[in-house]
Amino acid sequence: VIFAAVRESPEVVVQAFRLGARDYVIKPFDPQEMQEAIQRVFATARVHEERDQLTQQLQRQLQELNAVYAIGRSVTSLLDLNRVLNRVVEAAVYMADAEEGMLLLLDSESGELYLRAAKGVDEEATRSLRIRIDDSIAGRALRTDRPVLLTGEQAKVSTGYLVKALLYLPLRVPERGVIGVLGVVNREMERSFSERDIFLLSALADYAAIAIENARLFETLEVERAKLEAILREAEEAIVVVDEDDNILLCNTAARAALDLAEADLLHRPVGEAIPHPSLHEMFAQVRETGKATHNEVSAKDGLTFNAQLTPVEGVGRVLMMQDITHLKELDRIKSEFVATVSHDLRTPLTTIQGYIELLPRVGPLTAQQQEFIQRARESTETITEL
């Protein structure tokens, strides 16, 4: 709309623009002046149209980035490897608007890529799919650590089967290098993949590689944790692990039996509440105060005696280990009785021998050699008595 006025009035002009006018002219005007006004209006319209297109493009890109971020956050939060891989492939097919998607991982022993997850692919045909990395398109992406994009006749010739377009992207882990390939394929649709698809799926591939590594490390950690728990659970020593606040993290079977603890769940309960044993409470209080390890002998039910050692462990809390020393205490008692008995039984004859040695000089005169023999006997009996 171009507004024409018989006179110039700021109020009228403002009202005209508020009603949607793009320009205005004052009568009388010549054709050149009107033509220039029309050109200005068309130029402004083009600017507005380009701005709207740019805004829509930016909004679309923002939505795509938000989708990548949301998918990446969802994927990296999963620790179940099967769910991670399936979700990555589903997201790749959705974001690239592709017919099929697949994720292949590298078998380091055989040097082949094997199918780990797929979307839209015949499961029977690909269940045992293995691809060599030295003579395949997917292998090229892995070897070069760069995306591989093929379209049209190039895709058909390179793959040897009917494919309109394909895109493979490497899955890269910083410490381990490229661990696999993420791919999308169009067999029927006449749609090629673009630089935009490469950008979006590269971001998704990075998320996927991190998620795969997280899931692998978590699985390894779980295996090691299960081994450690089995060792601690089956250990003959009583073991109790608490956190920095003295809440129980682990209490093995031997500890439950030694301390006569109920089978109720003890985890995350305060040690003072779960283990009613004053001697142990004193040990925990001492370690909290000093920060140093301590040990003590602890009496338990049925007359058992334990050597208890409480040790602070940085980043964990404290570890209580108790060894049953009841049999050692009994052996010590038997040893003491044995020594006392032997000492008593030896002392009586030794005293008799010493007495007769002292009496020998009184029964008559002794030669020098006899006195020497008596002195040696006296010294030997004194040595045995001291022993």
Structural features, described:
The chain is α+β, with helices and mostly antiparallel strands. It is 53% helix and 21% strand. The strands form three sheets. A six-stranded antiparallel β-sheet has the order 5-4-3-8-7-6, sandwiched between helices. A hairpin with a 5-residue loop joins strand 11 and strand 12. The longest helix has 46 residues, at 31-76. The termini are far apart. The mean pLDDT is 82.
Structural features:
387 residues, alpha+beta, 6-stranded antiparallel beta sheet, 5-stranded antiparallel beta sheet, 53% helix, 21% strand, elongated
Q: Could you give a quick summary of the protein structure above?
A:
The chain is an alpha+beta fold and 387 residues long. It has twelve helices and 13 strands. It has helices at residues 10-18, 31-76, 81-96, 123-126, 137-144, 152-159, 195-234, 253-258, 271-274, 278-290, 326-359, 368-386, and strands at residues 2-5, 23-26, 100-107, 112-119, 130-132, 148-151, 165-173, 177-186, 238-242, 248-251, 294-299, 305-313, 317-324.
